[in-house]
Amino acid sequence: MESLKNSRKSRILLGERRVSSFQRIVAKGIDLTIIAILFFMGKVIGWPLGWLGALIYAAIQDSLGEGQSIGKKIIGLQVIEYDSGLPCSVLHSTLRNVPCILSLFCLPFPVVGVLSQFIFVPVFCLEIYLLLTLDSGVRLGDVMGNTQVVEHFQDGIDAMR
After folding, report:
1. Confidence class of residue 15 from pLDDT cuts 50, 70 and 90?
2. Measured between alpha carbons, how far is 76 from 151 in angstroms, rounded to an integer?
3. Which of 150, 161, 157, 159 is nearest to 66 (CA)?
4. What is the Cα 95 distance to its own chain's centre?
5. What is the pTM for the complete model shown?
6. Which of 51, 25, 47, 23 is nearest to 37 (CA)?
7. Are 62 and 96 in contact (CB under 8 A)?
């Protein structure tokens, strides 16, 4: 059993890249823009609603539709569970987005929010570093959630290629 777990970890880290880093960064940028819009909507409609909306979207974003956040759907990517190949579940989406969720969770609390950014900004930098340097193109969140990002286009888009 232990060797199976170690084998899984090494396969996800040492596998081959399935999509370009540029596609993933653009998709994440779209999703972070949506999270920021939800967060700042709290100033208009009431503090906790925008913050909770941003937290919920950050957690479940990769389990929407067929394992596609809004950004990934626009770019043509999908998050799958590494072992089964099925679209990302809510649990796996939450696990792979823990750094963003924790950063958002602490943000409204002045002292904790500022101090937490000294932890989470380096974690985001580590994720980008791993994404750009590992041959497999996985980030820390992919390892935590046991997920992989692959290309996924609708039939109509495939026909146009």
Report:
1. low
2. 6
3. 150
4. 9
5. 0.80
6. 51
7. yes
